[in-house]
Amino acid sequence: MENKPRVLTQKYELGRLLGQGTFAKVYYARSIRTNQSVAVKAIDKEKVLRVGLVDQIKREISVMRLVKHPNIVQLYEVLATRSKIFFVLEYAKGGELFNKVAKGKLKEDVARMYFQQLINAVDFCHSRGVYHRDIKPENLLLDENENLKISDFGLSALAECKRQDGLLHTTCGTPAYVAPEVINRKGYDGAKADIWSCGVVLYVLLAGYLPFHDSNLMELYRKIGKAEFKCPSWFPPEVRRLLCRILDPNPATRISMAKIKESAWFRKGLNSKQSKSETEARDIAAPDRDGSGPSGNSNISSEPKEELTNPPSLNAFDIISLSAGFDLSGLFEEDCRKQEARFTSVQPASVIIAKLEDMARRLKLKVKKKDCGLLRMEGLEEGRKGHLSIDAEIFEITPNFHLVELKKSNGDTMEYQQLLNENIRPVLQDIVWIWQGEREQQTQQQQLQEVSS
Ligand code: AMP
Q1: Mutate to test the pocket of ligand 1, among 12, 14, 18, 27 (most ligand atoms within 8 A of CB)
Q2: Can you list the domains of the chain with their CATH numbers?
Q3: What percent of the chain has pLDDT over 70?
Q4: What is the pTM of this model?
Q5: Cβ proximity of 87 and 228 under 8 Å
């Protein structure tokens, strides 16, 4: 098995082992079609099922597909066999950031650059409602250009498993990066807990050692609970102040992401050009149209056997029926993430346009343009990525049968999707004959019921 190349669903050639955890092994792999390097994380379904975290993992995989950012390891696709799930991930060639720190503390400017990248990525995920909850050295990787890449965003359920498994000492090592409220197992705010962990990372980058350290686990917990740490003499006063605000044991008074980003130390070296490229990166990072990864195929596919060579291809329903107790149906969220939404209508164009204008009024959207069957509507308030702008294009099939396409032309994709699903769809209900995708979904649901009955 080690000598001849192993092939995963005829798409990826698996190479050497990059790393190993309790539930997963990470391999280097190459896309057969594009030759692009990827990392494949193989997770043992049996082990995941045994600790009862299936639902949480399903949910987290789907959120992970939503967070695309230059400093986050991207999830390209999910594949499955009878006993394993494979995450096909962006390959971080530079290995773990902390291999660098192991050789000694970093220069202030270098540490600041990694911290800026870390904070930007974590803040981006928070804006999407995704919390890492397990930011630690093993999860901070570097690409070939020395850019930080956070791995395992959205997969923290697996880390949680480690704890529930009672394997804290052997698999988690030390809780050195975990916020006091998480240790105390009080209900906690994911954002504030991540901020604490980022503070520990910053300390380690600048000091070369941990802020909280003790060979006795109870003593370590005590120190974390009281935020008992000392800054080495070479820490500049600005860093000390920032760290005291981040490593505040009370999550309610702990500094927010916004305030960290405003702090003078954080902002040093960030000029307006950089901020712009960061914004542009975010735009690139918005969920792509077809979600395709390096294999050019975005979906969940599978193979039935453990041998990874030339397996017959199975579709999603096959995986579900094969994977008793592991229903992956929650992952089929591709359609609702697409930027365009289309519906057919049996109304004349004039009625459709009047309805769209009425909708714009109700949803406080300004009609910016109206010609040749195109209606451009714009949000009055600025969103995360500027004003939301939506185009509605009407195509005549017969005078009383039209296809209407709604498309985001500017603004934040999540804001657009929320508006589309919560407001636009219900408001347009009386002129819609059928939304594209609805039929297929109905048929799939019927098939699913048949498969499972
Ligand atoms: P994990 O189980 O995610 O902690 O991964 C175990 C180890 O595999 C990590 O500490 C890395 O050294 C390596 N690894 C994980 N993901 C990647 C990736 N996307 N690219 C390169 N190496 C990775």
Answers
A1: 18
A2: 6-90 (3.30.200.20), 95-286 (1.10.510.10), 316-444 (3.30.310.80)
A3: 69
A4: 0.62
A5: no
344: which strand partners? 403, 434
139 vs 91 pLDDT, higher one: 91
**Average pLDDT of the chain, as a whole number:** 75
19 lines ligand 1 (CB under 6 A): yes
For atom 1 of ligand 1, the residue with the nearest CA is: 21
The 10 Å Cβ neighbour count of residue 324 is 9
Cβ neighbours of residue 347 closer than 8 Å, sequence gap 6 or more: 355, 400, 402, 431
Residue nearest to atom 3 of ligand 1 (CA): 152
Residue 333 reports pLDDT greater than 50:
no
Is 41 marked within a binding site?
Answer: yes
Own/partner pairs for 106-113, CB < 8 Å, 24+ apart? 106/205, 106/206, 106/208, 108/206, 108/236, 108/239, 109/269, 110/205, 111/202, 111/205, 111/206, 112/265, 112/266, 112/268, 112/269, 113/269
Judged against a pLDDT cut of 60, whether residue 326 lies above it is answered with no
Answer whether 73 contacts ligand 1 (Cβ < 6 A).
yes
CA of 75 to the centre of ligand 1 (A): 13
Shortest-distance atom of ligand 1 to CA 89: 19
Res 208: pLDDT: 93
Query: Residues 134, 152, 194, 248: which is the catalytic one?
Result: 134
**What percent of the chain is helix, strand and coil (3-state, nearest 5)?**
40, 25, 35
Task: Please tell me if the CB atom of residue 190 comes closer than 6 angstroms to any atom of ligand 1.
Answer: no
Which atom of ligand 1 sits closest to the CA of residue 90? 19
* Angle (nearest 5°) at CA 138 between 122 and 140: 35
